[in-house]
Amino acid sequence: MSSTFHVPAAHSGSVAVATQIGYAVGILSFVPLGDLFERRRLIVQLFAGVALSALLAAIAPTLWVLGLASVLLGLTAAVTHVIIPLSPELADESERGRAIGTVMTGLLLGVLLARSAAGWIAALWGWRVVFALAAAVNLLFVFLLRRRLPALPPPNPLPYREALRSLWTLFRTEPLLRQSTALGMLAFAAFSAFWTTLVFLLGTPHYRMGPGVAGSFGLLGASGALIAPVAGRLSDRRGPRAVVTLSLVLLILSFLILWTLGYHFLGLVLGVIVLDLGQQATQIANQTRIFSLSSKARSRINTVYMTFYFLGGSLGSLLSSIAWMHFHWAGVCALGTGLLLLAALVHVAGARSSSIA
């Protein structure tokens, strides 16, 4: 992208920021509709939006147009979080964590495989082909979901304006939601800080590796996807708070490994594996906790949580680009470690409240 539009690498990082901002706004705008409208129709329409946005990105003549397409892509890609709250609705109460873990395994494997495939496709045929293929695949899903997905009536039909107002009410009245939101936001900020700048690290004279190799690091994240059902079952048995504690330890450890061993290839590999394990365990535990709050407001609860989650991702991407420009890899790792230590303080503070599980 930097070569195509003749801009510095840090400027092309704005594409990731634009997508995450769009994703956060899309979650805030579209995901509450899962509590209000028939969900099959909503899901199909959003997949169509993803296809059109990806097509616009593929033909973007300037970085500004690509940024706009990325915002639209993020907006419509929020469809995944219309789907996720369905899993505890379809599972027994004692297996909610396992159900969420199973669905998240599929989602995470898709993200990780797409990350790897996109890196090699971009290296072989250019970044525009990545978006063109994404448009084609999502258009295919429009037709498949329309035929195969059953009708899914809303659990709690409300006027849209009232549903949006209720988001603040949920955030204000549910301490568990507030704590989980803060934890998720800070953890994903650190996670995004790493992935936004990994391609910069691999492009340095120390490594001299292209986007294909950077994308292949996503395959290492399969370990994170595989831990999703394990984290779900552990949340059912030991409680999600214990899983959050373990996941924060893993996340902080991963950045310490990346900080000290990031310029050694095996150290970088180890750090990525531990990072993905910790991040996905955090996500499963947090969603298990918040989906237990209300069966009639799961889409809106997920809206609150995921809006802040991806705002955290945008902040992490932005701050990591700045940290890279001024302090390079050490600055990125210091940023990630600091964000996670702040998350640990939030977690410890929550343990003092008897109202937080």
Automatic annotation (TrEMBL):
Q: Would you indicate the residue range of the signal peptide? A: none
Q: Keywords on this record?
A: Membrane, Transmembrane, Transmembrane helix
Task: Fetch the InterPro entries from UniProt.
Answer: MFS, MFS_dom, MFS_trans_sf
The record places domain Major facilitator superfamily (MFS) profile at 1-357
For molecular function, the Gene Ontology terms on record are:
transmembrane transporter activity
Classify the source by domain of life. Bacteria
- Pfam annotation, one family: MFS_1
Tell me where the transmembrane regions lie. 12-30, 66-87, 99-118, 124-145, 182-203, 209-230, 242-259, 303-323, 329-351
Q: What is this protein called?
A: MFS transporter
